Amino acid sequence: MLENLEIQSHVGPYSVTYAGSPGEAIAAALLPGCVVIADARVAELYAADFAVLDGTPCIFIEADEDAKSIAKIVPVLEQLAELGLKRSQTLVAIGGGVVQDIACFIASIFMRGIPWHFVPTTLLAQADSAIGSKSSVNMNAGKNILGTFYPPKQIFVGVGFLQTLPDDEVRSGIGEIIKVHAIDGPESFDYLAGKFDQLVSDDAVLAEFISRALRIKKRYIEIDEFDRGPRKIFNFGHSFGHAIETATHYGIPHGIAVTMGMKIANDFAVALGKADAGHRDRMLGILQQNYASFADYAIDAEAVFHAMAKDKKNSDAGYGIIIPVGAEARIEAITVKPDQFFLDTLKAALAL
Fold it and tell me: Is the torsion defined by CA of 91, 94, 95, 96 positive or negative?
């Protein structure tokens, strides 16, 4: 039995409830007068479960990275206005991270803020992004430049949605689960490593790690909801991962790029003398297993280097990266000058 959660936020508490089937998760999220935004592909795959909508207004979107732009979001806002959505009514989002980002952003600005519910349908969303309040919208200048902090009122996790996920999407979600356990410390990471084969083959073990990941993340977001201090370490792997996504035109799924990013961050930690090679080597096998299907993907180090220049964590002092530090491999934020040493280390680390 998975443990439901309650998370404290700046707009009050919100909850994570584990539902049974996808249809039960959707039904639990609906309220009278609500409007639904849903991933069109998910609606197609789970047409029988979507029957519970029973006339509820629904806007279907193609949930690709291009949808996370102002140009694509404005027509959705117009549709919601035409449907007469009021400030007292609820927006319900059904989909993965893209739908979450769009719905969260819209809910935070429509009528100066409306309540919303979320039914996450990908592993990455269920195990990581569903909690934490963030929305992220892309601009031509880079990924996730715009955004707000505006949590849903309720989250309904239906693990049954994962049955139809492609392997790459499963691995993408596992990448974020690995990240959270690395942040929690070597003991948590090693516990995950010991069950890694079951994690990718046993639904019950996967459900356990979804719950573990959310409980670990809850501790951080409740003390640093706005990402100003301790929560920054949840960007472990992301500075490099986001740049890999940009450099490959999103040819590598997010969580897999983050897995690669963790490997690169570990290499930087050793190259900078911040961590012992033993910690890097201890983690390497699991990281390599998770990105194995993309290990031979052509990634231009120069393109990654230049993409990193647009990262929000940068400062005048240099590029902000998150690496393991010290004997306990504590995940910490540091700043590194974007010089020739940085580029040479990056090139070496991209030999995945």
Answer: positive
The whole-angstrom distance between residue 313's C-alpha and the CA centroid of its chain comes to 17
Q: Say if residues 152 and 133 touch (Cβ distance below 8 Å).
A: no
Closest Cα to residue 194, out of 299, 282, 65? Answer: 282
Cα–Cα distance, 169 to 245 (Å, whole number): 14
pLDDT tens column, 83-131:
999 999 999 999 999 999 999 999 999 999 999 999 999 999 999 999 9
Structural Rg of the chain based on CA atoms: 20
With cut-offs at 50, 70 and 90, classify the pLDDT of residue 300: very high
Alpha-helical segments (H) within 46-146:
47-50, 70-82, 97-109, 123-124
pLDDT of amino acid 1: 64
Judge whether 201 and 174 are in contact, CB under 8 Å: no
Element (H, E) at 37: strand 35-39
Report CA-CA distances (Å) from 150 to 125, 134, 138, 221, 290.
Answer: 16, 6, 17, 13, 31
b (16+ CB within 10 A) / e for 16-54 = bbbbeebbebbbbbbeeebbbbbbebbbebbeebbebbe
Contacts of 102 (CB under 8 A, 6+ apart): 37, 61, 67, 68, 73, 76, 93, 135, 137
Query: pLDDT tier at 276 (50, 70, 90 boundaries)?
Result: very high
In which region does residue 252 sit, left (phi positive, over 0), alpha (psi from -120 to 50) or beta (all else)? beta
CA distances to 126, 133, 152, 248, 283 from 68, rounded to whole Å, are 19, 17, 18, 17, 33
| Domains present along the chain, CATH in parentheses | 5-164 (3.40.50.1970), 167-226+234-349 (1.20.1090.10)
Kindly report the length of the chain. Answer: 352
- What's CA 236's distance to the chain center, in Å? 12
Sequence-distant (≥ 6) Cβ neighbours of residue 228 within 8 angstroms:
none
